[in-house]
Amino acid sequence: MSETNGTSGTGPRLRAVLESIPTYRPGRPAATGGPVAYKLSSNENPYPPLPGVMESALAAAASFNRYPDMACGALVEELAERFGVPTAHIATGTGSVGVAQQLVQATAGPGDEVIYAWRSFEAYPIITQVSGATSVQVPLTDGDVHDLDAMADAITDRTRLIFVCNPNNPTGTVVRRAELERFLDRVPSDVLVVLDEAYKEFIRDPEVPDGLAIYRERPNVAVLRTFSKAYGLAGLRVGFAVAHEPVAAALRKTAVPFGVSQVAQDAAVASLRAEDELLGRVGSLVCERTRVYDGLVEQGWTVPETHANFVWLRLGERTVDFAAACEQAGVVVRPFPGEGVRVTIGETEGNDIFLRTTETFRKEHY
Ligand SMILES: Cc1ncc(COP(=O)(O)O)c(C=O)c1O
């Protein structure tokens, strides 16, 4: 039949660009049924949901025969009040990766360029190519930090969007206020700069700017935030951007209708109201981060200073072997073969296993 209707019999024609798009690789889950295993591969929050947040989610679940509030009204109101911004400046989506995709779709298509550091969040190349736009990857510096001068030099008249991931995933490094302002001064006003602050709540360095302060002064800056990390709602999929109009309005147009469930919306509102307790947990994770970082340095590793809920070990060719050693010891980490591993700060026991593994691995291989 395919021969007679003029097709080659190979099935529906898909866009050629899909062939070159890397598949998003989620962090591997911890093994079940085996020895104790800790998942340190996805930068999640190791704490279970707070009782109040759980109650809100369960109450919303009772009416999941209905569509959610498409405008995420209660959540948008709550966020607008918290940040002192107009509700029209807030756009929500299915996780901040969903909002990142909306941002690319709103700004860049075939022939356009999207600039970001590399290595950085692995969704950037995917969402850029899905949009038909071209990725311009600017290597991190030797210290694993964004090379903002090189990123500014990479701007052309085809550039439509620039991601600045602060802190950067997977290195945990940051750009500070003065260098970011200097960079932004070089970006043309018709190019959108997205400050991806998925790990904002883990930052303790006062020189690292709050993207919201920058957005207020600059109409071409949007800030991306998520409930997945510090707020512990990764499984519910809700993130948001704060941006001036018309960017925020464009995000509402490129959103998947009803993409944020009512369970997610109500849990996010409850999380904001339980912020003191949640941020207390973040404080504990930051203490653990210091302990893990110091432990690694003491063992002799060179580790970039991390401002997020993970550490980055540049292991090069030893990356895959090290990840296997971790798994054998009972922790799952995130390897980037040939480059390094990203290890989330998790439960104390998991962090301890990781530190014991690094110690043994170092003695055996260095
Ligand atoms: C830098 C960065 N941005 C965005 C995201 C997306 O998170 P979510 O879609 O869960 O909000 C992640 C997740 O790992 C990330 O590391």
Summarize the SSE layout with pairings:
Blueprint: E1 38-39, H1 51-61, H2 73-83, E2 90-93, H3 95-107, E3 113-118, H4 123-130, E4 134-139, H5 148-153, E5 159-165, H6 177-186, E6 192-196, H7 211-217, E7 221-226, E8 239-242, H8 247-254, H9 262-273, H10 275-299, E9 310-313, H11 319-329, E10 331-332, E11 334-336, E12 340-344, H12 348-365
Helix pairs in contact: 1-9, 2-9, 3-4, 3-8, 10-12, 11-12
The structure holds pyridoxal-5'-phosphate (PLP).
Describe this structure as you would to a colleague.
This protein is α/β, with parallel strands linked by helices. It folds into 2 domains: 26-48 and 275-365, Alpha-Beta Complex (Aspartate Aminotransferase, domain 1); 51-274, Aspartate Aminotransferase, domain 2. It contains 12 helices and 12 strands. The strands form 3 sheets. It has a 7-stranded mixed beta sheet, sandwiched between helices. A 3-stranded antiparallel beta sheet has the order 9-12-11, with helices on one face. The protein has a two-stranded parallel ribbon with strand order 1-10. Strand 11 and strand 12 (340-344) form a beta hairpin. The longest helix is centred in the last third of the chain and has 25 residues, at 275-299. The model is unreliable at 1-6 (pLDDT under 50). Residues 43, 95-97, 121, 165, 169, 196, 198, 226, 228, 234, 239 line the site of pyridoxal-5'-phosphate.
